[in-house]
Amino acid sequence: MTENPEGADSAAQNPPPGGRPEQKAGRRSRPHGKTHRRIAGALAIGLSLVTVGFLYTALAPQPQVAEAQPDAALIAQGEQLYNNTCITCHGANLQGEQDRGPSLIGVGDAAVYFQVSSGRMPMARQEAQAARKHPLPIFDPDTAEGRANLEALGAYIQVNGGGPITPAERGEALRGDDPGRGGTLYRLNCASCHNFTGVGGALSSGKYAPALAPASESQIYTAMQTGPQNMPRFSDQQLTPEEKRDIIAYIKSVNETNDPGGYSLLGLGPTAEGIFVFVFVMSGLVGFAIWLGAKS
Length: 296
Known about the structure:
Cytochrome Bc1 Complex, Chain D, domain 2; cell membrane; extended; heme
């Protein structure tokens, strides 16, 4: 038997009209394979959607309003306090009144605590800025009655207006563990207005940054949450709760530290006494030189 390569090549190039059996089978099986792939893809997508939905339900943080709601009695007490002390300036529906008071929608329980516990609200008169004063006796945070009334008033405004919530911790529990980091954050975010040691300072249009020494830990924290007056609001994305606590630890450490060098000189900073002595001595030397020149 002799080989015929040319014939083989021509047969490969010119297959019979019916085609090869395996080609026919392949063509017949393609629609069946596409159907399988489509069904498998749809099942994969469905399974992925179900998995994502399950993970979101299990891991997504719940909104604050979905957490423990204040009881009806507490809200009713807060409404009565609001009607007695706040409604004239802030309106029956927290919408505010022109030339009297701003809207309370969105300010939250945190703003209520800061403004009322520090005596800034209710205001005695319309001024460029609400000054700190002793709070109303019914809202004094140093008494059990005052704390209960603050909680009730805040709960009423929180339910009807929403906004930031006062942290559950109080006092030294709001002080962080790293006042060194708090000092760095304070100098970056607060010192330009409140000075390096929290003594405050003047701003424009009759406003000012108040001294921080009289403020409690809760008042400092809620001020950072709500941004009263000219102060910016620091969300948890800008300053985390841990960073806020470290700032509070720094402020309290500065205010509670004695002055080992003598006079604090208004708390202008750690080198205030040296600068004062330098300026005083140099001025004396210049004056003495001028006196000698005039005498000669």
